């Protein structure tokens, strides 16, 4: 071999080494599957929370971890196929959000790939895990206790309107297997304070409008909007309808109050989502889901929108203002 040919061959091989190294690094990079019941545009905050949690344990998307996104666009019937697609993709961990339905779909799709869920419905009642402290199997996650907080929200509405006789609750029957538990909890709470409770269901945007029309006909005094990805995504619609019908409402997330809702009380969901990112990172580092207890919230927030109160001609009692973690003026 001539000297010039040898140098050319050696130079070409040297140039190929970095490319081969990068290709090997990309193949070795762990992959997280992110399965959500909502749409990519509507859940930017949730995705940011997962990334934040991952960053706290050393994982940066695009640098040392890849994320495959799958969104059901509020159609829970699509979730099983999306979960199966992630399993075929052989992701290392599946993170779910948007209620119990994505977690159940991921659990049904695989017993091998770890699943980290984030849900407001009781994961034991829903059948996602057998125990909060010892979840067992390949599933763990974060639970922000929306079912248990329903009665508290009704109590806050009662404190706002002590003379009100009829309260209503709006639920999405397709959003959570725990819907019946919420109804029972609220009926018991309403009975305790001697008030009537009207139960309404909505699974689409048009059904939300229909529910508000019925609320006006039934002369309900105030509304409790249950948690769920549908109501979170339709928060502007809910705020507009509440204002139009002059109906005070309490929600589960501060996002609804920021969109014009009157009040919200619930766990700090941003913190809960961040914790799922942390768990996903810890699993990538070798920990097992069965050894990671289901996380429960430590931060709760009560938010009031005084601008909305003014539009509704409501005077917020000083006792409620004193309880509020944040007052939007």
Structure description:
The protein is of the alpha/beta class. It folds into two domains: 29-145 and 269-291, Rossmann fold (3-Layer(aba) Sandwich); 146-266 and 300-328, 3-Layer(aba) Sandwich (Rossmann fold), CATH 3.40.50.2300. Helix content is 47%, strand content 18%. The strands form two sheets. It has a seven-stranded mixed β-sheet with strand order 7-6-8-9-10-11-12, sandwiched between helices. Helix 2 crosses helix 12 (269-284), helix 3 packs across helix 4 (100-109) and helix 8 (205-218) runs parallel beside helix 10 (235-244). The N and C termini lie far apart (81 Å). The model is unreliable at 6-10, 13-17 and 19-26 (pLDDT under 50).
């Amino acid at each position: 071999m001539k000297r010039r040919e040898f140098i050319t061959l050696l130079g070409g091989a040297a140039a190929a080494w970095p490319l081969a190294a990068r290709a090997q690094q990309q193949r070795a990079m762990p992959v997280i599957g992110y399965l959500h019941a909502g749409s990519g545009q509507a859940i930017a905050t949730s995705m940011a929370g997962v990334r934040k949690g991952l960053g706290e344990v050393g994982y940066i998307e695009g640098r040392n971890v890849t994320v495959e996104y799958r969104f059901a666009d509020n159609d829970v019937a699509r979730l099983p196929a999306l979960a199966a697609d992630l399993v075929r993709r052989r992701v290392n961990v599946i993170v779910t959000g948007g209620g119990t339905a994505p977690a159940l779909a991921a659990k049904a799709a695989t017993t091998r790939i770890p699943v980290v869920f984030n849900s407001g419905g009781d994961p034991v009642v829903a059948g996602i895990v057998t125990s909060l402290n010892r979840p067992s199997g390949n599933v763990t996650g974060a639970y922000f206790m929306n079912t248990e907080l329903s009665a508290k929200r009704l109590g806050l509405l009662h404190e706002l309107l002590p003379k009100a006789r009829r309260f209503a609750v709006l639920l999405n029957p397709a959003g959570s297997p725990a819907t019946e538990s919420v109804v029972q909890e609220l009926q018991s709470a309403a009975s305790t304070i001697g008030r009537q409770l009207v139960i309404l269901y909505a699974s689409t945007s048009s059904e939300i409008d229909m529910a508000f029309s019925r609320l006006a006909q039934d002369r309900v005094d105030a509304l409790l909007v249950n948690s769920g990805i549908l109501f979170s995504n339709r928060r502007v619609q809910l705020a507009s309808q509440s204002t139009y019908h002059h109906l005070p409402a309490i929600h589960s997330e501060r996002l609804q109050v920021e969109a014009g809702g009157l009040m919200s009380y619930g766990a700090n969901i941003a913190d809960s989502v961040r914790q799922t990112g942390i768990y996903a990172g810890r699993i990538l580092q070798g920990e097992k889901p069965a050894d990671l207890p289901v996380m429960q919230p430590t931060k709760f927030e009560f938010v009031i929108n005084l601008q909305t109160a003014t539009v509704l001609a409501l005077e917020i009692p000083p006792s409620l203002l004193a309880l509020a973690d944040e007052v939007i003026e």
